[in-house]
Amino acid sequence: MPALSPTMTSGNIGAWQKKPGDTLAPGDVLVEIETDKAQMDFEFQDEGVLAKILKDSGEKDVAVGNASSQTPIAVMVEEGEDISAFESFTLEDAGGEKASPKEKPKEEAAESSEPPDSGSGTAPPKDESPKPQAQESESAGGRLETSLDREPSASPLAKKLALEKGVPINKVKGTGPGGRVTKADIEKYKPTGGAAPPAVAAAGKPTYEDIPASSMRKTIANRLQQSMNQNPHYFVTATVSVSKLIKLRQALNMSGEGKFKLSLNDFLVKACAVACKKVPTVNSSWREEGGQSVIRQHNTVDISVAVATPVGLMTPIVKSVEALGLESISSQIKDLGKRARDGKLKPEEYQGGTFTISNMGMNAAVERFTAVINPPQAGILAVGTTRKVAIPTSDDESPNVQWDDQIVVTASFDHKVVDGAVGGEWIREFQKVVENPLELLL
User: DSSP letters of 323-370?
Assistant: First the structure.
């Protein structure tokens, strides 16, 4: 099992893209592997022939191999070699997951510890009862599985569609490679019977459903729990006017003649980078290396952009934002977001980053919220929806009202790295550049 990310300790086997006897060239996709972050294609880097598959599609929590402990998933041979010799080859033959020898049960002494045929008067009588005959198991021959192992293999698009339509994916029969559930399977699914909803379930039946946590959900839970426990969070909130920013966005989109379409979030990502350059302490991270604690201050601003996917939250990274124009930022965010939702990101595209932005402005019900810091970063900005606020104005004749577009932003900072006054300075610089958006073009 290859390690496809630095944090990966085990993975799940998805659909095999090759079958025994197929020839492989460098760059060919051998198998899909679900890591702790995403479902990824494992590309073979040598030439050869697939002789035997040792781990079938659907295998869960296969440990990553290393120098001292190997976890084989397939057998590769050079072109021209006879693969029939590997027809009965097993995982144990490859040196992986050998069954540990069973200890013989300890028997208590009865009457005497002497053998029955010793001739002694105290020797126990011989056991002349017939020995039980070995019986063949009535098992169907399949691999013993736990309830977690029986989670069906499905493409990210199928999972997303099932979530949107409320289709129980474990009841859908997959028609893809290795029984994988595809988008077409979800679209064709028709529920059978007229079962009552869980709220009015028959007496004696459970009124809930336990949903197994995916590898990615476990990783998200562990990292965020670690962040809240180890990083002393504090929060700074500000109300920011975006009226000028919205007008600038409209003007730039009109001048682009359809070549690009900038979003409000593209401007906010750029504004975060400007604020991080002016207050570099926020663009830092707490590190413990070689028994020493250091604060690493980064020279480039790599913004992690929170993206909701069918399998959990991903944070793909737009790198060196301080050196990018708005068009380039917008293009990268769209590309990274699409591939994040499709489960096609590479590890280097979502691991790292120096600051994070999480924007829930598309949900009109969310005025403001607070976000959990993405370790080892020291800050994250949570952005609420845009709302119109009446601003009182007055002149010599009569009082009047002017409508202003505003957002409420809340920055979370790690107090180990960023002091309260410094966090306040960062939010002021962010507010200044957003309310005077022409500075973004400098």
Answer: G--HHHHHHHHHHHHHHHHTT---GGGTS--SEEEEE-TTSTT-S---
- Give residue 50's identity as a one-letter amino acid code: L
CB burial of 364-374 (b: ≥16 within 10 Å; e: otherwise) equals eeeeeeebbbb
CB 38 within 8 A of CB 345: yes
Residue 5, classed as helix, strand or coil, is coil
Amino acid identity of residue 263, one-letter, is S
pLDDT digits (tens, 9 = 90+) for 227-273: 999 999 999 999 999 999 999 999 999 998 888 899 999 999 999 99
For residue 98, what is the DSSP state? P
Q: Are 242 and 338 within 8 A, CB to CB?
A: no
Side-chain-facing half-sphere of 350: CA atoms under 13 Å: 25
Lookup: tokens for 277:
């350059």
Cβ–Cβ < 8 Å for 228, 210: no
Q: What is the mean pLDDT of each run of 10 residues along the chain (442 residues)?
A: 67 81 80 72 77 79 63 78 76 60 41 45 52 49 47 75 80 80 84 53 72 85 92 96 95 89 95 97 92 94 94 92 95 94 89 95 94 95 96 74 94 96 97 93 74
Cα distances from 352 to residues 65, 93, 175, in angstroms, run 24, 40, 37
Sign of the dihedral defined by the CA atoms of residues 132, 136, 139, 143, in that order: positive
**CB-count burial class (<10 Å; 0-12, 13-18, 19+) for 147:** exposed
What does DSSP assign to residue 242?
-
Q: Do residues 407 and 242 make contact, with C-beta atoms less than 8 angstroms apart? A: yes
Q: What are the b/e assignments for 20-33, b being 16+ CB within 10 Å?
A: beeebeeebebbbb
* Bridge-based pairing state of the strands 29-34 and 39-43: antiparallel
Amino acid at 372: V
Which conformational region is residue 21 in: left (phi greater than 0), alpha (psi within -120 to 50 degrees), or beta? left
CA distance 16 to 34: 12
Residue with tokens 């679900």: 34
For the segment 99-138, what is each residue's pLDDT rounded down to a tens digit?
444 444 444 433 344 455 544 444 455 555 555 555 544 4
Q: Measure the CA–CA gap between 261 and 256, rounded to whole angstroms.
A: 8
Classify 377 as helix, strand or coil: strand
Query: How many angstroms separate the CA atoms of 94 and 77, rounded?
Result: 13
Please state the pTM of the whole predicted model.
0.62
